[in-house]
Design brief:
The complex is a heterodimer of chains A (about 500) and B (about 230). Chain A has about 500 residues and is α+β, with helices and mostly antiparallel strands. Helices cover about 30% and strands about 25% of the residues of chain A. The chains are: A alpha+beta (about 500), B mainly alpha (about 230). Chains A and B meet through helix 1 and helix 9 of A and helix 5 and helix 9 of B.
Chain lengths: ~500, ~230
């Protein structure tokens, strides 16, 4: 349904564009995203709507502010566990541990350079780290081709190495880039050069297969060419292979969010590939995509500042309220989406100021605060929600808890701060719908073109209306049938009277 | 009509003439319904037996344009989303008038060379009568769209397409009957007329771009002169 509506929209635009071009009017009036404003959202018409800031920078930590004596070198990943922040300082072969103290303090706690009992004990380019519920650490030790599991005191427990499996090509090594672990001690690993999905290892270290391979997309014309080509020519051509994931994140329910950047423009446009996927245990994508546009970041890919092409999602993090925030490495932006796949906010940019990035590679959250790691600047940026941002979260939470009056009031407040914000209108409408105010809620849904919710409210309203007016409806229906019938009957009687023998006799 | 005759016409005569005209107008308008249900027979009678009129054709055309515009406002947003910032009402009027006039002129210009019996006015009347299903389906559809949910709305797109397909069939049938063509010849000249329309669009575009360039030439001369003086 959604797709059909979008098609209509596109057709309508094409039509008007075709008409316009006949009159030689150029139609390149569309503004590129975020040229003026830090935070923005896209509306139903895919126009950029400026928004109040949802997040503000609390502090930017460089190595001095982090309490380190030497600078970081190509750090690749962050991991947050409660108050603790792990930072993989990949280039320096070490992992740093910090603890959050107060709203804008990160205190240096520990430096992990080796694991007792492992062979070798030191790391070679540790790329990622994960911590399970018991405090055991999983370290993706990339250049040593292994994932090490240690206990909380950093004693070696076991390691996961290159699986001896026929599914893996002989030539491919095992370079674990990103790992996540679940509550059962299983790990899911994204390794560079392996595009069959995530490698899944059981808690005893046994490789149990690939999970959630990305969709393979191919162009129909390419396919035809390939059929026509000879064997030798075919080998020269680019083969249709799935793309690798760039990063993975496991949310509190155990679902894996996987992002892939570097997707082709036309594949994204045709929605044959997904920039973000939410994988269940079976590796099936269950991400809800009910937004007005796909979950792939910016909608305009023009070359502002020498950058062009779609957003490159490098990392993702999922808040406890199921809002997931994707990090666009290309334009240094953060895109928040809610559990329905609708954009909540987008902010950021390339630059040297606080809140702008040069090469952001990792994002993590601590409560609702966000931590972003910049590989080039070697800094961690700490974002905290503004009043506006917290109101959005509060409203969503209230709605999920069934406090519809409060949720409506909070959404009203959000609407006062940002009158163009579709989620506020839809939030108010949904609260009203839950309270049974169907007719009022329809207005809010209509204002933001939410056809699904509108239809739901309208069906209820219609049912209610019919129930209230059933007598009137029956009277009207009866009238429609009975009046013409009775008129016919009257005429018939009249005719019978006129032709009755008795009157004829009397006339004579 | 001579002046003398006009003077002679009494009030009653005039009233009678008007009543007769109105009756004929109603009659020809009503004939549209016969046309859309009996395309072949209907369109033959339309021009060859003068059962249609220019006034009725104009009425149908205006009705179609009116439908196209009113639809934007009163169709439920579930089926038609309107970006009001971009709407130009003249563009919507032109979107019917412009292709219509190109079709009528292009078709007449071609068929008149190949034994077409229809005159320019006949082609116009035939085409306009062929557009009758559009308002006839779209207006009720527009009203009903406000009383359904999106799940129940599949019929909307079906009927919407149906109204256009019906119009298309009628216009092609009508063209063939107006010119007294065989089926094959009708199809051939439909395609040829579309080609003629494309050629005309091409010529118009060249014409406009040349006019634009010519005007800008004189403007730049004028500007140059103003700078020098």
């Amino acid at each position: 349904m959604k797709k059909r509506v979008n098609k209509l929209k596109i057709m309508r635009r094409l039509l008007s564009a075709a008409l316009l071009s006949g009159f030689v009017i150029s139609c390149f009036g569309k503004a590129y995203a975020g040229e003026d404003n830090y935070t923005y959202v896209y509306d139903y018409w895919e126009d950029v709507q400026e928004s109040p800031d949802a997040y503000t920078v609390a502090r930017v930590f460089d190595f001095g502010a982090l309490g380190l004596s030497s600078n970081l070198n190509n750090p690749e990943s962050l991991f947050v566990d409660g108050d603790k922040v792990y930072l993989c300082d990949t280039g320096n072969n070490r992992i740093l541990l910090f603890e959050r103290k107060g709203s804008d303090q990160l205190e240096f706690v520990d430096e992990i350079k080796s694991v007792k009992g492992a062979d070798p004990e030191t790391f070679a380019a540790p790329a990622d780290i994960a911590v399970d519920e018991d405090g055991n650490l999983f370290i993706a030790d990339r250049d040593n081709n292994r994932v090490i599991k240690t206990d909380p005191d950093l004693n070696y427990l076991m390691q996961f190495t290159r699986p001896d499996d026929s599914a893996l090509d002989a030539g491919t090594g095992f370079k674990p880039d990103k790992i996540v672990c679940d509550t059962a001690g299983r790990i899911y690993c994204e390794a560079s050069g392996i595009n069959k999905g995530l490698l899944k290892f059981e808690s005893d270290g046994v490789f149990s297969g690939f999970v959630g391979a990305t969709r393979v997309s191919y162009n129909f014309m390419d396919y035809i060419w390939k059929r026509l080509a000879s064997q030798a020519q075919r080998e020269q051509m680019v083969s249709f292979v799935p793309t690798e994931y760039d990063n993975v994140y496991m949310d509190r329910e155990g679902f894996i969010y996987a992002v892939s950047g570097g997707l082709k423009e036309e594949d994204l446009k045709n929605e044959t590939v997904d920039a973000v996927r939410k994988l269940n245990m079976m590796g099936t994508d269950i991400l809800v995509r009910n937004g007005d546009y796909p979950v792939f970041g910016d909608l305009y890919w023009g070359g502002g500042g020498g950058i062009s092409g779609p957003s490159y999602f490098k990392d993702v993090t999922v808040l406890d309220n199921d809002i997931y925030i994707c990090l666009d490495q290309k334009r240094g932006r953060l895109f928040g989406y809610d559990d329905q796949g609708r954009m909540v906010y987008a902010f950021g940019g390339n630059g040297n100021q606080a809140g702008y990035f040069r090469n952001p590679v990792s994002i993590e959250h601590m409560g609702n605060d966000l931590l972003v790691l910049d590989q080039l600047d070697c800094t961690i940026t700490l974002f905290i929600p503004t009043h506006y941002g917290s109101l959005i979260y509060q409203a969503m939470e209230q709605f999920d808890n069934g406090e519809y009056d409060d949720a409506q009031a909070t959404w009203e407040e959000v609407k006062t701060l940002n009158g163009n914000y579709a989620l506020a209108y839809i939030g108010i409408g949904r609260s009203m719908y839950r309270k049974g105010q169907y007719k009022e809620s329809m207005k809010y849904f209509e204002a933001k073109y939410d056809d699904e919710n509108y239809s739901r409210a309208f069906a209820q309203y219609r049912k209610q209306w019919i129930r209230e007016n059933i007598i009137g409806i029956i009277v009207i229906i009866l009238a429609i049938f009975l009046v013409p019938m009775s008129i016919g009957r009257v005429y018939q009687i009249k005719e019978e009277i006129d032709n009755a023998d008795i009157f004829k006799l009397m006339k004579k | 009509m001579s002046r003398a005759y006009r003077k002679k016409e009494s009030k009653e005569d005039r009233r009678e003439r008007r009543a007769a005209n109105l009756a004929r107008y109603k009659e020809t308008l009503k004939f549209g319904f016969y046309c859309i249900s009996h395309p072949l027979d209907g369109f033959w009678k339309l021009t060859h037996e003068h059962r249609g009129s220019l006034a009725a054709a104009n009425t149908i055309l205006i009705l179609a344009i009116f439908t196209r515009i009113i639809k934007l406002k009163y169709t439920s947003f579930l089926f038609l989303q309107v970006y009001w910032e971009d709407i130009n009402i003249f563009l919507y009027i032109a979107s019917i008038i412009f292709p219509l006039s190109l079709w009528v002129v292009g078709n007449w210009a071609l068929t008149t060379l190949f034994d077409g019996k229809g005159r320019l006015g006949d082609v116009y009347i035939g085409t306009c009568y062929g557009m009758l299903p559009y308002p006839l389906i779209q207006i009720p559809l527009m009203i009903v769209s406000n009383f359904v949910t999106i799940q129940e709305g599949q019929f909307y797109s079906v009927l919407s397409v149906l109204s256009l397909v019906w119009c298309l069939i009628l216009i092609i049938c009508g063209m063939g009957q107006v010119h007294a063509y065989s089926a094959a010849k009708t199809l051939l000249f439909t395609i040829a007329s579309v080609a003629a329309v494309l050629v005309m669009i091409f010529l118009l575009m060249i014409f406009f771009s040349m006019v634009t360039q010519g005007v800008s030439y004189f403007i730049s001369i004028g500007r140059e002169l103003m700078y020098r003086m």
